[in-house]
Recover the amino acids of this structure.
């Protein structure tokens, strides 16, 4: 529990974040990350390409959409194709031929998502492979070792993750263990000059535990902090309060990465609460189910009502799908066995998320973020006052009123 | 359009796996795409309301469009052709079409060319009877005359060319009759139907093919359906066929394979040596594994391709084909494709389709070049050496 690193070394951590503008009412910030594979404007949404691919879209398409950072996953890539092969291919960048930035998750989340196949001890997480039954131990050292081989620009500590619906001593155990594992990750990290190791704040939905975690982890010399353990099954009321608590105690001059978020409303609210970076499988996953994201929610394009709808998904969207195709065509294609249908929607949904973040950022820079939030909620819910209670409360807590 | 050529294969109006963006990274795209009525018939009401034609609806207004009855990859069940109607099978089920319904659908689609309603079932059974062959010709001619008459009554339909279909099973007499009679009608071109099947059946039908094309006018295009393998394509070109479907590269893609056959009939001596060694290696390996590699397309792997799922590609950092200018070969390695296939990722199909189409279109380009310089025999020999 004692800090392995002295507080005075706080000054030596690389400052990868440059603040460009701050909202005078809320905690929203616009900034720029300086990463080895180029600058990234924040707030930023990072699409998830788990297994070294953004599902059905090419690196060129992703680049053309303006994406400058996306995710890969250590657990999956560690199994297939494995770190040795990726190293031979000149790292994950070389293997998938992605010229911009990559962030790799540590494999911690798989502890929750694959809980029936895993066992956690102080040593690490023992996973049983679903492919060949082999057992692997993912320790903090092993996770960092794999991520060093992958060569991603931002790497995540291995954290002891418990589902946000778990209560009791396990939450406290996981929080303290995450601190110890952070120190082990820092010690094991072979490439601090090329790869930025982020800490992940845990503590579940318990304000005291989370506060302790924040106090301890911010003593460590890391370039950025993630807010973890949320975006699971918890209520939105508990969710926003933990996010707000975390941002209130994280340093201003380092990026705040809220993991696993998400839906458009959540993104806008959490930017107001002071978060800079987000990731979520939702937009790309929902695309493959035929759902297109729009400012008023989503369109389930497989439904009969779109059969003769000759408009594009969104008139104001600049993506290739909206430039060339109608809802009616996509509806027909979605009812076929041609995978192109899924790719059209993946392109659009990623464009939607990136365009949203761009608009959010512009409004912060131009000092009209609160108005932007009001407009956004009005469009999404029909009227700003019809916005969900949790969001209204969260925004109010940082000085943004909707009516 | 330069001939001989292939048509871009599509499923429900889209190249398989490819969006407009990824499709247009492919070099040498054909000037004409093939649409299948089987995938579009069930949407005809939507198209009728849309009014502006299938080309615009699918986002391919710049390509010429040919509408065939069936999808060459998934042949339909036999026994549904009557004197009055033909059926196609979409994903929503069977669509039965009389001549007037068929023409109404074509009026909504507005393709540049379309295959006329025809009876292609004389070639389905093992051994066709002369009676069945005769019926296929009679019916098809009747359908053709009905459709031509309906076309005269519609300004919209007159903007499309009807492709007459040559039937007659394996009966020479009926084939000749079909060719001569169809050629008398004002069609835009001819579709040679019923020559498809397994490689063995094509062999026996090749002599029929020569006799049929000899009866057809030189100034109208001759299309063939169901023939797409490089060796078979060359045999048909020598026998007067101009246009082919490009479903073979799609089938190769679906089995996780990449086309690697050479069509460089004028290589430098060093390349020849390298290639010969390479080809021998591939053929050796393929012979051992060919029997095991049946696919969902019910097609076995050919020796024109490599199977990227094989373990030996796991650490192969070469492109699929050295010197290939496609997006996949310029940006990715065999090892990456192997990984995508092993992990069941959608991108595998996208990248393989891009490569396989480009490789195949390159083959057709080399055919045209070989014909211009009178070197078709060399190209044919090169392909024959690689077919097993």
């Amino acid at each position: 529990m004692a800090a392995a690193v002295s507080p005075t070394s706080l000054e030596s951590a690389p400052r990868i974040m440059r603040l460009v503008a701050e909202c005078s009412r809320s905690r929203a910030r616009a900034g720029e990350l300086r990463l080895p594979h180029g600058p990234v404007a924040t707030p930023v949404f990072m699409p998830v390409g788990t297994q070294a691919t953004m599902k059905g879209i090419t690196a060129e398409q992703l680049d053309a959409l303006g994406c400058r950072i996306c995710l890969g996953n250590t657990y999956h890539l560690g199994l297939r194709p494995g770190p040795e092969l990726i190293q031979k291919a000149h790292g994950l960048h070389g293997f998938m031929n992605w010229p911009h930035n990559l962030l790799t998750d540590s494999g911690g989340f798989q502890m929750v998502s694959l809980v029936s196949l895993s066992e956690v001890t102080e040593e690490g997480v023992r996973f049983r492979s679903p492919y060949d039954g082999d057992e692997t131990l993912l320790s903090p050292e092993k996770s960092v070792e794999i991520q060093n081989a992958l060569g991603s620009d931002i790497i995540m500590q291995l954290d002891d993750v418990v589902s946000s619906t778990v209560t009791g001593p396990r939450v406290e155990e996981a929080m303290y263990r995450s601190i110890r594992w952070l120190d082990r990750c820092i010690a094991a990290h072979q490439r601090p000059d090329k790869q930025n190791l982020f800490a992940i704040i845990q503590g579940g939905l318990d304000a005291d535990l989370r506060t302790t975690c924040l106090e301890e982890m911010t003593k460590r010399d890391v370039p950025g902090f993630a807010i973890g353990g949320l975006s699971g099954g918890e209520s939105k009321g508990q969710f926003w309060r933990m996010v707000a608590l975390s941002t209130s105690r994280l340093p201003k001059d380092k990026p705040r990465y809220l993991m696993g978020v998400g839906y458009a409303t959540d993104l806008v609210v959490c930017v107001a609460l002071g978060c800079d970076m987000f990731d979520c499988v939702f937009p790309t996953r929902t695309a493959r189910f035929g759902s297109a994201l729009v400012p008023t929610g989503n369109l389930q394009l497989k439904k009969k009502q779109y059969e003769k709808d000759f408009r594009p998904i969104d008139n104001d969207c600049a993506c290739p799908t909206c430039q060339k195709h109608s809802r009616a065509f996509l509806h027909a294609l979605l009812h076929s066995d041609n995978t192109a249908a899924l790719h059209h929607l993946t392109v659009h949904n990623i464009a939607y998320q990136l365009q949203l973040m761009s608009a959010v950022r512009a409004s912060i820079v131009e000092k009209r973020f609160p108005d932007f939030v009001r407009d956004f909620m009005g469009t999404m819910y029909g009227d700003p006052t019809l916005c969900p209670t949790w969001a209204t409360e969260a925004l109010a807590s940082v000085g943004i009123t909707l009516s | 359009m330069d001939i001989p050529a292939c048509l871009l294969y599509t499923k429900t109006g889209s190249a398989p796996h490819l969006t407009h963006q990824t499709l247009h990274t492919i070099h040498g795209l054909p000037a004409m795409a093939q649409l299948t009525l089987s995938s579009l018939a069930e949407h005809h009401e939507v198209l009728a309301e849309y009014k502006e034609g299938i080309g615009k609806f699918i986002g391919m207004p710049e390509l010429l469009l040919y509408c065939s009855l069936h999808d060459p990859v998934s042949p339909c069940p036999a026994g549904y052709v009557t004197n009055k109607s033909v059926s196609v099978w979409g994903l929503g089920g069977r669509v039965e079409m009389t001549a007037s319904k068929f023409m109404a659908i074509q009026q909504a689609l507005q393709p540049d060319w379309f295959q006329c309603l025809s009876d292609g079932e004389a070639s389905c059974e093992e051994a066709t009877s002369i009676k069945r062959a005769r019926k296929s010709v009679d019916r098809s001619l009747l359908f053709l005359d009905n459709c031509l008459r309906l076309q005269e009554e519609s300004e919209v339909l007159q903007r499309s060319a009807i492709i007459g279909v040559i039937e007659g099973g394996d009966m020479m007499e009926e084939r000749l009759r079909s060719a001569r009679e169809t050629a008398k009608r004002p069609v835009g071109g001819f579709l040679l139907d019923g020559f498809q099947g397994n490689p063995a059946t094509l062999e026996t039908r090749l002599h029929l093919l020569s006799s049929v094309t000899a009866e057809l006018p030189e100034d109208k295009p001759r299309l063939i359906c169901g023939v797409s393998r490089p060796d078979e394509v060359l045999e048909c070109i020598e026998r007067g066929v101009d246009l082919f479907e490009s479903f073979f590269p799609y089938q190769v893609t679906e089995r996780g394979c990449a086309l690697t056959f050479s069509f460089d009939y004028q290589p430098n001596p060093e390349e020849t040596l390298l290639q010969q060694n390479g080809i021998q290696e591939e053929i050796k390996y393929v012979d051992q594994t060919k029997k095991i590699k049946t696919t969902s397309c019910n097609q076995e792997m050919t020796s024109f391709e490599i199977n990227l799922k094989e373990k030996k590609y796991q650490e192969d950092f070469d492109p699929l084909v050295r010197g290939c200018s496609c997006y996949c070969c310029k940006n990715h390695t065999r090892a990456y494709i192997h990984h995508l296939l092993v992990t069941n990722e959608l991108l595998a199909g996208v990248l393989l389709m891009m490569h396989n189409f480009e490789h195949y279109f390159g083959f057709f380009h080399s055919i045209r070049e070989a014909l211009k310089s009178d070197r078709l025999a060399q190209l044919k020999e090169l392909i024959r050496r690689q077919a097993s």
Remarks:
- Chain B is about 45% helix and 15% strand.
- The CA atoms of residues 145 and 185 of chain B lie 8 Å apart.
- Residues 280-298 of chain B have pLDDT under 50 and may be disordered.
- Chain B touches chain A through 42 residues (CB under 8 Å).
